[in-house]
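From the thread on structure requests for the teaching lab: each student submitted one protein with a one-line request. Submission from student K.M.:

"Model ABC transporter ATP-binding protein from Ornithinibacillus halotolerans, tokens only."
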Amino acid sequence: MSDETLVVKDLTVSFSTENGKLTAVSNATFSINQGETVCIVGESGSGKSVTSLSIMGLLPKQISTVETGEILLNGENLLEKSSKEMRNIRGQEMAMIFQEPMTSLNPVYTIGDQVSEGLRYHRKMSKKEALKYAVKALEKVGIPSPQQRIHEYPHQLSGGMRQRVMIAMALSCNPRLLIADEPTTALDVTIQAQVLEVMKELKKDTNMSILFITHDLGVVADVADRVVVMYAGAVVEEADVWQIFEEPLHPYTLGLLEAMPSVDGAIERMKTIEGTIPNATNLPKGCRFHPRCPFATDLCKETEPTLEIIDESRKVACWNYKELKKKEVI
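Reply posted by the TA:
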């Protein structure tokens, strides 16, 4: 049996809008092995969240269309599953942590009711048995006095506590795949570090796979085994985490790294990537990044590069990556 928990092949997702068809994700391809953490990085509008919602089957069906591709979870294509089958898979085989726990948790139900809901649905536990298990789940993610917390409501908990509740809910049925969509964005750095540590410990204990969506390269360095870089809906680079930081091959990846603040304070002015991400209804001809790329050539402006396999751990969609390496730009 393959050790790949998730395989996404040539995924293309579009939305119907007043201004015409908007292609949010174009031919995205990547995989996650068992026990591995893969981070998808990129600016807002790069297609990260649409990709994760496609995997979970949570895109609004009225306006979204998966035009091409496969999403294989444990070898089974999720795009062929019915709504009922997806409800059984969500929570049990895969689960998701959302960005803002205050809007994801139901304000009128207790913490205990919400953590135990998945256990009662998927594991057919009694309410008493599920609440007992919920206490253990809250304890596992580092929430103090869990016996008391199960009777409280979301507004009675801090932001960090609420995010831990979300993690406890997601992991209650021991899924093989956890999708975390910007789970630490709304938290201060101290609580962020604690939540990331909880996730790393739980991954070590359960050997689950994690798809981590973020724009924070500091978080990437802390949690990732492998990194997928997306730009304007397309995957432009994929590599092991140390390769991304030591030798980025795509100019966009290089731009993201150069835009990181320096801890030593030696640089007075931070570098930025000129321009903005293009509108998905009006993508530029050729390489999507060429209007913002300082290394763009005529070829880049005319023909879009495909994702080229460099070796077993590296892929890049750039016509000039070899020339950039020769110039020691990267």
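TA comment: Residues 39 and 212 are 5 Å apart (CA to CA). DSSP finds 13 helices and twelve strands in the chain.
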